[in-house]
Amino acid sequence: MSNRDSETILQAPHRPSDLFTDVIARKLFLEGDFAAVAVSTTHRNSVDLSKETDSFFNSFTEAVATAYQYPKIIQLHAFDTVKHNLDCDLILSATAKSGGVIYDNIARSLTDEFIIEGFKISQFPKDVSVLGGLKNVNAKVLYSTNSEADFFHVETSMKMREGLRNSKYLRKKFTGCFINPP
Asked: Which CATH number belongs to the domain containing residue 14 in this structure?
């Protein structure tokens, strides 16, 4: 199932180690306005598909960058708030030192939508200096293949992942921030 008009793709490269990201990606895809979803089938201890240059994820990313004029990839990740000593539930990054206006707008939209639900949104590198995906090869392939593309590296806390996994309402809010940014 896909939406042929959408140029937005979901990826979950670290299933099962990034708990629930695969389930969330599939639910977002089925309920939202996304063209495709790619989910890892192996543990990141075997191969880290966001850092492996010779992978189906990179081939898929390159195909997306070639097939669409303005592709957007939302890549879902997981983090441990205690391990990283962070007080936030979602970190949005462009996998670069700065993401520009669209990232600021989406971060603001996520904050507006999720603060009332008790979630804190941060943006890399503005608010946090870790988990920005700077070594993400999928992002590098997307950007080098299509200069009009946007790559959204989305790190999520367990609280956020549980919310997105269990609540269609929260998934709809999440999707709206990316599909129809302010």
From this structure: 3.40.630.100
Q: Helices 21-31 & 168-179, crossing angle to 10 degrees? A: 70
In a domain, 114, yes or no: yes
The structure's pTM equals 0.93
Q: How many domains, the chain?
A: 1
Instruction: Tell me the Ramachandran region of residue 20: left when phi exceeds 0, alpha when psi lies from -120 to 50, beta otherwise.
Output: left
Would you call 91 helix, strand, or coil by DSSP?
A: strand
Q: Report CA-CA distances (Å) from 182 to 7, 88, 99, 133, 176.
A: 17, 22, 16, 24, 10
Q: Which domain holds residue 24?
A: 8-179
Q: Is 15 left (phi over 0), alpha (psi -120 to 50) or beta?
A: beta
Place of tokens 């941060």: 122
Three-class secondary structure assignment of 124-177: CCCCCCCCCCCCCHHHHHHHHHCCCCEEEEEEECHHHHHHHHHCHHHHHHHHHH
**pLDDT tens digits, 60-119:** 999 999 999 999 999 999 999 889 999 999 999 999 777 789 999 999 999 999 999 999
Please, are residues 86 and 79 in contact by the beta-carbon 8 Å criterion? yes
Token pair, residue 5, equals: 């008009």
> Does residue 165 form part of some domain?
yes
Alpha carbons 57 and 141: distance in angstroms, whole number: 10
